[in-house]
Design brief:
heterodimer; A: 118 residues; mainly alpha; 5 helices; extended; B: 216 residues; Arc Repressor Mutant, subunit A; 8 helices; 0% strand
């Protein structure tokens, strides 16, 4: 256990470094070293990634000025990942979203709205 | 023109001819685009997973690669490397820095037309860094995801986007602090307190877990 101020600072810095490495490890930080790129490339080999149509053709992107380019919007603090996953799952299965999921989505949306009002 | 045999370094150089030979420059870029788009989309998708709509990964992918053509290629510094795999990884690490820069700005609420990537300040790519990711890293990330509320997570995420482990006593730039304050409706002092409480919570949870596993 740290017993003086220097130890506390050192211990806190160590925790920050470890957490930063943890974020790099899970891919939350985009790879920016050769070592991390090699790791991501290896992971990609075992992933099934389909490129969305919006980015398959570079010619369609090329002549647009920066103002005319697609930008889906800012980051939403109340973004609900679970809701998006439910919708994506329903789309993949081409089925209907169950009443239960719809109800949960409704509740989540209301909760997010309440949080933003706080 | 067929550039499929050219190295990534050569493609970047051909892109710099956009005034003297725009057709060659554009075709070199198209080849470059096809080589890296899937990788870039994958790492971007992973980095925003659970945070925002996946469409943002598409937008950031195309924007990053367009920025390479528009301004980046001129500033790129090739190494003496000749091995194609090593060249590819070097180039992807560099692209990663551009994408990271754009992502940081988007998370601060900027739209693409407001963002200027500081290409001249993009540092050389580290070739020697070796990080051994441990079980502790995985556990810490799990605790980050599970014990913190959304606000603490959101603030720590932005702080770590700007984190550089090689710089002791690093502080967030003033404009980033202002953006976080505005985004979450808090003061700069609150940010420091929230960061400190969040780290303490992770640390305490980790220690508790360690203690419990040593008892068991």
């Amino acid at each position: 256990m740290p017993n003086n101020e220097d130890d506390i600072i050192k211990s806190s810095k160590m925790l920050e470094n470890d957490l930063y490495d943890a974020m790099r490890n899970v891919g939350s930080i985009i790879p920016q070293t050769i070592e991390d790129v090699a790791k991501a490339e290896k992971e990609l080999e075992s992933e099934q990634i389909d490129l969305p149509k919006t980015i398959t053709n570079p010619d369609k992107l090329f002549d647009k000025t920066v103002c005319g380019r697609r930008f889906s919007g800012f980051v939403d603090n109340n973004y609900n990942a679970e809701m998006e996953e439910n919708l994506a799952q329903a789309a993949r299965e081409r089925g209907k979203i169950s009443e239960e999921v719809l109800e949960k989505m409704k509740k989540d949306r209301k909760k997010a709205e309440n949080n933003s009002d706080e | 023109m067929n550039f499929s045999e050219d190295s990534d370094y050569d493609l970047l150089e051909i892109m710099t001819w956009k005034d003297s030979d725009p057709i060659a420059a554009k075709e070199a870029w198209a080849e470059f685009y096809h080589r890296h788009v899937k990788y870039l989309y994958y790492v971007l998708l992973k980095s925003i997973k659970g945070l925002c709509k996946h469409e943002l990964a598409e937008d950031l992918t195309s924007e990053t690669l367009l920025r390479v053509f528009e301004r980046g290629a001129v500033t790129f510094k090739r190494s003496k490397e000749e091995d194609p795999d090593k060249i590819r990884r070097h180039v992807r690490a560099w692209i990663g820095k551009i994408a990271h820069n754009l992502k940081c700005e988007v998370f601060r609420g900027r739209s693409f037309n407001e963002i200027k990537v500081p290409f001249d300040n993009i540092e050389d790519i580290s070739n020697n860094e070796v990080t051994s990711y441990s079980q502790r890293n995985e556990e810490l990330y799990h605790l980050f995801e599970t014990v913190l509320d959304e606000r603490k997570k959101g603030i720590l995420r932005v702080i770590f986007m700007y984190y550089d482990p090689t710089k002791p006593n690093q502080k967030l730039p003033d404009d980033v602090l202002d953006d976080i304050s505005q985004q979450w409706g808090i003061t700069r002092v609150n940010i420091r307190q929230i960061k400190s409480r969040a780290l303490k919570k992770i640390k305490d949870s980790y220690n508790l877990k360690e203690d419990n596993s040593s008892i068991n």
